Amino acid sequence: MSHAKHNTPSFQSVAILIIGNEVLSGRTREANAWFAAKTLFDVGCKLSEVAIVPDIQETIINTLQRLHQQYDAVITSGGIGPTHDDITMQSVADTFDVPLLEHAETIQLMTNFYGEDALTEGRRRMARLPDGAKPIICEQSICPGALIQNVYVFAGVPHIFASQLKSVLPHFTTGKAFIRQEIEVRLLESNFAQELSDIQNDNPDIEIGSYPGRCGKQPTGKICISGIDKKRIANVKKQIEHMLKDKENHENQ
């Protein structure tokens, strides 16, 4: 079976579409977007949006059409199993106005693995791909994901999702991994908010985020600095540390 290939990675922005009533109802704690965000960050690809939609075909199609047009690549999570509420593959096919067809090589693999008598209708459902899509093969499941245009269709089960992402990770690797550094802070955010904003405005190529931990009389928190240029990050970090030290000295006077 052929694997999805992408020889010239150029993704600058990626969106994830999480599909499933179980996520929106609180029955399942969503983990795949977090895993993808961390994994993509480490290879220099930016996760720009996470959308969560119910198992409603029209909603899936409308959201996928928007994300497909807005971002370089889209990863979907969930809804490719054997039951009635697994409608992602059909929704993806409808998004691109192509039929959903049984993939002959997947059927053969399933037949070899399960035996012909055990190839149930539910299992056959998981061998259906949008016409023209390439199967995404991973180590954790015999049932493939799919790649059609810039849309990657993955399972919702976290260990299968992770394995599928790993199998196509070179598609997202830019060669310029993001770097993140953190500064421990023991000041209230309101005490340095303006100065931190000024530093951010002076350094638009570096992302600066402030994240409080404990508030009150003994505040704690972290300032995170990220980008792709190690020297620029180090320079911005020094600016922030100098600003924080001045603030602390002023408070201690």
Quick overview of this protein structure:
With 253 residues, the chain is an alpha/beta fold. 40% of the residues lie in helices and 23% in strands.
Average pLDDT: 92
- Helix share of residues? 25-40%
How would a crystallographer describe the biggest sheet? 6 strands, mixed
**Second-tier CATH architecture of the largest domain:** 3-Layer(aba) Sandwich
Number of strands: 11
* Estimated share of beta-strand residues: 15-25%
For the largest beta sheet, what order do the strands appear in spatially? 2-1-3-8-7-6
* Total tally of structural domains: 2
Give the end-to-end Cα distance, rounded to a whole number of Å: 71 Å
The stretches of 5 or more residues where confidence is low (pLDDT under 50) are 1-9
Shape: elongated
- How many helices? The count is 9
CATH class of the largest domain: Alpha Beta
Write the layout of secondary structure elements.
Blueprint: E1 14-19, H1 21-24, H2 32-42, E2 47-53, H3 57-70, E3 73-77, H4 88-95, E4 100-102, H5 104-114, H6 121-125, E5 128-130, E6 134-136, E7 145-148, E8 151-154, H7 158-168, E9 179-185, H8 189-202, E10 207-214, E11 220-227, H9 230-252
Parallel strand pairs: 1-2, 1-3, 3-8
Antiparallel strand pairs: 4-5, 6-7, 7-8, 9-11, 10-11
